[in-house]
Request: fold
Amino acid sequence: MQAEIKGGTTPILEVSLSAGDEVVAEAGELAWLRGPVQLTTGRGVGQQQGGLFGAAKRAMSGGTYFMTSYSVPSGSGSVVFAAKAPGEIREIEVGPGKEWVVHRHGFMCCEPGVELNLHLQQKLGAGIFGGAGFVLQRLSGRGKAFVESHGDVVEVTLGAGEQIRVHPGHLALFDAGVGLELTTVPGIRNKLFGGDGLFLAQLTGPGLVWLQSITLAGLAHALQPYLETQSAAEGGAAGAIIGGLLKS
Reply:
């Protein structure tokens, strides 16, 4: 299996497959494919922790209930996955001592030996109060995986005991050994009028942390006024057409 990241602002990942190769992704992630590529979709496809329990944990983490395997029985072919928003696609290595935690929209695809599961927070409050965008997924097992982040990525290496506090939506990926808990935004005025939410994710090293400059929630909020304006304009145009037809 060979993988190539193409494009700039909105990249794609093209995975070239030969006979015997296989790549696994969540259901519905396919952009396009070429050649005699076969698709196999099921609850435990490509996952050691398959079945109902494994599928339920993936669904709780914001993933899909089913996984899809792409393979080529003979000859060669390719599968392409596209980023969900402007940003970056990166390859990571998963193995013993190299487990990773990614944001709920970060996982793209992996080799069959990689496991995708719900990341259980060290403190329950991190999952309850961090917001819908703060549900995290854990990559374990062994093999290559590809993850996407939104906007530009800033890499931070934390030393032992070193901490950084991050708006939950800007957390892209971190070493599974990094400690995580939620802290409240300091100051009552900041809580009520700051507009940044009530909680920050506090990460404690040692380990690597990737931060993303764009959140999908922030991007959707920025686009919302334009979408509402367009919908209103289209509704007005449709109303004028219908009114004209009724008068004729």
User: Anything to note?
Assistant: The longest helix spans residues 216-247. The radius of gyration is 21 Å. Confidence is low (pLDDT under 50) at residues 124-133, 187-197. The chain has one domain: 2-235.
